[in-house]
Amino acid sequence: MSPTRILTGITTSGTPHLGNYVGAIRPAVAASRTAGVESFYFLADYHALIKVQDPARVQRSTLEIAATWLACGLEPDKVWFYRQSDVPEVQELTWFLTCVAGKGILNRAHAYKASVDKNREVGEDDDAGINAGLFMYPVLMAADILLFNANKVPVGRDQIQHIEMARDFGQRFNHVYGEPLGETFFDLPEAVIDENVATLPGLDGRKMSKSYDNTIPLFVPRDALKKLIYSIVTDSRAPGEAKDADNSNVFQLYQAFASAQETAAMRQAFADGIAWGEAKQALFERIDSEIAPLRARYEELIARPADIEAVLRDGASRLRARHAQPTLARLRAAVGLRDLSQSSTGAAKKSTKASLPLFKQYRESDGRFYFKLVDGDRLLLQSIGHDSARTAGQLIGRLKQEGGTALHGAGAAAVHLGDELVGHLHEGVDLVEVVEALAQLVAEDA
Ligand code: TRP
Asked: How would you label 105-136 residue by residue, b for 16+ Cβ within 10 Å and e otherwise?
């Protein structure tokens, strides 16, 4: 069984705050260490351009967010960690999906509709001031997800509709291009909403969010953290007066960082009338003890942006070779962006070169890597599944090198190279045809 693929993107439009840490970063880093999953974490910088048109801010935010995830323990050699714009296949797939996406579906996207509604309220033209990027946002996001056939996408509630749209576009593509071939191109992703993850209140008691300007940045220096925590709005109950833990943002913040035991003790302290100053001091110490070691690592990382750049580039280049490029090769062929000499209509007259047999590598929805040997329109040989594109490729290399000489059949159309099972002959194909086809390839190579 191939591992479950978990993918999530972080828009690079701001500075990470405690709410991001508790709600997304901390649980994601923990999840990335689970066995049996393949995790994808990326910096959604193309998405950032939709709302941020300040280049320095996009760059700064990308650096800060990358350093934050690394400081919080994401291991770039165990997960795919990359920057969206380093994977140009995302853009190409965006276009393929754009051309199967229903415009009417995009009209109904919440984020776009909210902007239209605002315009209507003030009597403006529906689309005044709305860029087409906002309108296309769900298609770009679908490409992020479908490119890697992600199965699970951890997101906030506001993103559920986007995952549904990704399913819709993926399904349409499968329908239009896959059904005639009896193939599936995309697994359909599911949104994962973690009910246990706390939404943190901000300084003013509303949800901590950049748009409310009530955040506590994750890695402010210790003194500044203390100042911010002391500025949290509370009621005016005096020291000694019992305080309502459940309706206190100080308490909720404390709970997000404390053990069950510590939380119970703090609840008791509230009932016993702890002074706000004292409660805030305890909150500050509790948060700082978790954050301080991460902050130290963050400061080291952010001082060496070239190292972070190298980590991101390395992630993207391995990911492209392993997943994005093979997938796009298959999709390009599926939609008809093809080598003209390999016309499948048979209308084009074959040149000598075009009539050479050919290995085609692809990946099946079971996650495994396959190849087939075709001669013009004729399918000769179908391989068994491989765990990696590399082992499949190596076997092709050996077949090309050794030709048909070492090849033999062993009943039920099975084809072996030495004692390794290569695959199966297509119905009605004789092993001799395969041997001859390989001989042509060997001759061509020589
Ligand atoms: N739109 C997401 C957000 O604002 C970020 C994002 C971009 C994303 N592409 C994604 C999330 C793909 C999950 C999967 O939160």
From this structure: bbeebebbeebbeebeeeeeeeeeebeeebbb
217: helix, coil or strand?
Answer: strand
Residue-level pLDDT at 346? 39
Ligand 1: centre distance to CA 11 (Å): 7
Ligand 1 atom, smallest distance to 7 CA:
14
pTM of the model as a whole: 0.77
Residue % of the chain over a pLDDT of 70: 94
- Within the chain, which residue ranges are assigned CATH 1.10.240.10? 219-296
pLDDT of residue 219: 97
User: What is the rounded distance in angstroms from the CA atom of residue 390 to the CA atom of residue 386?
Assistant: 9
The pLDDT of residue 47 is above 70:
yes
> Is residue 39 predicted with pLDDT exceeding 80?
yes
User: What integer is the mean pLDDT of 399-405?
Assistant: 76
CA of 154 to the centre of ligand 1 (A): 9
Q: 4-198+304-335, superfamily in CATH? A: HUPs (3.40.50.620)
Return the CATH architecture of domain 219-296: Orthogonal Bundle (1.10)
Residue owning the nearest CA to atom 4 of ligand 1: 11
Q: Where does 155-275 have alpha helices with state H?
A: 160-173, 222-230, 249-257, 260-271
Torsion of CA 426, 427, 430, 434, to 10 degrees: -10
Q: What pLDDT score does 405 carry?
A: 67
Residue nearest to atom 6 of ligand 1 (CA): 9
* Residue 44 CA, ligand 1 centroid: distance in Å: 7
Among 50, 61, 144, 146, residue to substitute to test ligand 1 (most atoms within 8 Å of Cβ): 144
Q: Which atom of ligand 1 lies nearest, measured to the CA of 162?
A: 1
Per the listing, tokens 């399913």 go with 167
pLDDT at 342: 74
Q: What is the mean pLDDT of residues 416-433?
A: 84
Ligand 1 atom closest to the CA of 156, numbered from 1: 15
